[in-house]
C-alpha cells in the first residue's frame, strides 16, 4: 500500500450495519486494500444512539459536532479535535445531541471481519 490522503468525499457512507438510527459509516482503507487497520468516517445525525460491544479496538477522532460515549464506568463527552479510544470487549453507547457529529476512526483489526459483515 502506498501513502495516500483521504477526505470525507472519498468515503461511500452507508447505514451502519445492524443499526436503526441515522448513523452512516464509510471506510476509506480496509481489508480490501491489504492494510492491517480499517480507517474511515462516521456521520451521526442529531439525537442518535448506537449501543455496541466493541468487536475491535476503535480510536475515534471527532471532526465536527459533539458526542458522548457511555460505559459502565461513566461517560466522556468529546468535541472537535478530541480523541476517544474504545477497547475491544467494552460495551459502549455513543450518543449525539443537537447538531450530530462527524468522526474519523481507525480500528484494529478490521471491524467488518470481526463482526462477520
Explain what the structure shows.
This protein is mainly β. The chain has one domain: Jelly Rolls (Sandwich), CATH 2.60.120.10. It has one helix and eight strands. Strands 1, 2, 3, 4, 5, 6, 7 and 8 form an eight-stranded antiparallel β-sheet that branches. It is globular, with a radius of gyration of 13 Å. The model has no long low-confidence stretch (mean pLDDT 92).
Short description:
The protein is mainly β. It contains one helix and eight strands, in the order ββββββββα.
Structural class: mainly beta
Let me know the number of strands: 8
Rg calculated over all Cα atoms: 13 Å
| H and E string | EEEEEEEEH
Q: Roughly how much helix do the residues carry, as a percent range?
A: under 10%
Largest sheet: 8 strands, antiparallel
End-to-end Cα distance, whole Å, is: 23 Å
Count of alpha and pi helical runs: 1
What key attributes describe this structure?
1 helix; 117 residues; eight-stranded antiparallel beta sheet; 8 strands; mainly beta; Jelly Rolls; 54% strand; single chain
Amino acid at each position: 500500500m502506498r501513502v495516500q490522503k483521504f477526505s470525507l468525499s472519498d468515503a461511500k457512507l452507508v447505514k451502519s450495519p445492524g443499526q436503526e438510527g441515522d448513523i452512516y459509516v464509510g471506510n476509506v482503507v480496509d481489508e480490501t486494500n491489504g492494510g492491517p487497520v480499517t480507517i474511515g468516517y462516521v456521520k451521526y445525525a442529531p439525537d442518535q444512539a448506537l449501543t455496541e460491544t466493541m468487536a475491535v479496538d476503535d480510536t475515534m477522532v471527532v471532526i465536527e459536532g459533539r458526542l458522548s460515549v457511555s460505559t459502565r464506568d461513566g461517560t466522556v463527552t468529546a468535541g472537535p479535535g478530541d480523541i476517544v479510544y474504545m477497547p475491544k470487549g467494552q460495551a459502549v453507547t455513543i450518543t449525539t445531541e443537537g447538531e450530530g457529529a462527524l468522526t474519523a476512526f481507525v480500528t484494529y483489526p478490521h471491524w467488518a471481519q470481526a463482526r462477520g459483515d
